[in-house]
Amino acid sequence: MSLKVGVVGTGMIGLDHIRRLTQVLSGVEVVGVTDIDLDRAKSAAPKGAKVFETPEALIADPGVEAVVICSWGGAHEAQLLAAIAAGKPVFCEKPLVTSEAAALRVMDAEVAFGRRLVQVGFMRRFDADYRRLKAVIDGGTLGAPLLYHSTHRNASVPEAWSSELPLNDTLVHDADISRWLLGDEVTGVEVRVPRRNRRRDDLRDPVVVLLHMGSGALVDVEISVNIGYGYDIRGEVSCEDGVASLPNRPATVVSDKHGIRQAIPEDWRERFIEAYDQEFREWIVAAGEGTATGPSTWDGYAATLVADAALRAVESGGLEKIAMRDKPALYGARVAVAA
Ligand SMILES: NC(=O)C1=CN([C@@H]2O[C@H](COP(=O)(O)OP(=O)(O)OC[C@H]3O[C@@H](n4cnc5c(N)ncnc54)[C@H](O)[C@@H]3O)[C@@H](O)[C@H]2O)C=CC1
Ligand SMILES: O=C1[C@@H](O)[C@H](O)[C@@H](O)[C@H](O)[C@H]1O
């Protein structure tokens, strides 16, 4: 039996997820799509799928068993609340939502429902290299993690991007992966802004973000969204007795008159292709059982708090503290945070 899925938002990642759900993965069928741009939804609809006029109609349809949200961050809250009200498992692209208040409303609704329904698209947690890196840190042979260096470079971003987006759309990945890798919570955020990249001097880009973790570890994040040369994601954990790093992606080695070199991925679709496949494999199994796995509403909330604090820190120039609510039992044991 295939899981019957409806997709909300058929832009860049919506199209890529429809491709993997229809051409790569098994046990799933895309039975419906919708987008505020109905022409886009029509051209994205796989053969036999229904085009719905609104997300509400798609989510409420009895033929849709589970929902995939790929609309803009600001639209996620209403669509998540509708899916939870319908009791349907929902995969929601990051960011979960774009404000603390919205995250709390989604969490309250899911807790009241009484079962996890929401999985957030933090695909790095499903990437084989990040998983091996975490296994080394958790193995304990390198001692306690002290510093994590997270580099997040995009070749370019759409013209419409504003200066908030590097902090509330891009940084959420680094916030989430830092919490997950170090098994820790972020307690404070600082931001420094160097000179701007000439490619987009209308944008606050790059930015350097310092995450203060509960254990006392520090995470420095470089966010550069117009680096030009490619999509370059790096990570290095510096521990008491050694250092563990993400490897370079395996790529064909080309030798010619310019030298010996390996290609750099163009964007997230290429760099994380296997990770997205794996996050959906695991989601399809969980959603088929009426629930969710991996990154939860709690994790989406934590990343949203970091984004909010980073936006405040840009203005204040200082350390912006983060206070989390008590973790509901639905999301498992609370991570121990030093006083
Ligand atoms: N996990 C990852 O690596 C990535 C995640 N994303 C996330 O996926 C989401 C979508 O991003 P993109 O596909 O890049 O954007 P996009 O702009 O290419 O596509 C978004 C689509 O959603 C539609 N839409 C917006 N609001 C809607 C609403 N209320 N109802 C129905 N449709 C609506 C738009 O018309 C558009 O077709 C964002 O939250 C983004 O942060 C995007 C790229 C990579
Ligand atoms: O999630 C993603 C995009 O939405 C975001 O805009 C990019 O900066 C990230 O690198 C990508 O993974």
TrEMBL record:
EC number, as in UniProt: 1.1.1.18
**Biological-process GO terms, alphabetical:** inositol catabolic process
Question: Catalysed reaction(s)?
Answer: myo-inositol + NAD(+) = scyllo-inosose + NADH + H(+)
- Keyword NAD included in the entry's annotation: yes
Q: Please name the GO terms that the record assigns under molecular function.
A: inositol 2-dehydrogenase (NAD+) activity; nucleotide binding
Q: Which domain of life is it from?
A: Bacteria
- Residue ranges annotated as transmembrane are none
What range(s) does the GFO/IDH/MocA-like oxidoreductase domain occupy?
Answer: 130-244
Q: Which controlled-vocabulary keywords does the entry list?
A: NAD, Oxidoreductase
Report the residue ranges that make up the Gfo/Idh/MocA-like oxidoreductase N-terminal domain in this protein: 3-122
> Which Gene3D superfamilies does the entry mention?
Dihydrodipicolinate Reductase, domain 2, NAD(P)-binding Rossmann-like Domain
Pfam families noted in UniProt: GFO_IDH_MocA, GFO_IDH_MocA_C3
Q: What class of enzyme is it?
A: oxidoreductase
InterPro entries, alphabetically?
A: Gfo-Idh-MocA_inositol_DH, Gfo/Idh/MocA-like_OxRdtase_N, GFO_IDH_MocA-like_dom, MI/DCI_dehydrogenase, NAD(P)-bd_dom_sf
Q: Which family does it belong to?
A: Belongs to the Gfo/Idh/MocA family.
- Which PANTHER family would you find in this protein's record? INOSITOL 2-DEHYDROGENASE, PTHR43593
Q: How does it assemble?
A: Homotetramer.
Functional summary from the UniProt entry: Involved in the oxidation of myo-inositol (MI) to 2-keto-myo-inositol (2KMI or 2-inosose).
Instruction: State what protein this is by name.
Output: Inositol 2-dehydrogenase
Q: Which organism is it from?
A: Amaricoccus solimangrovi
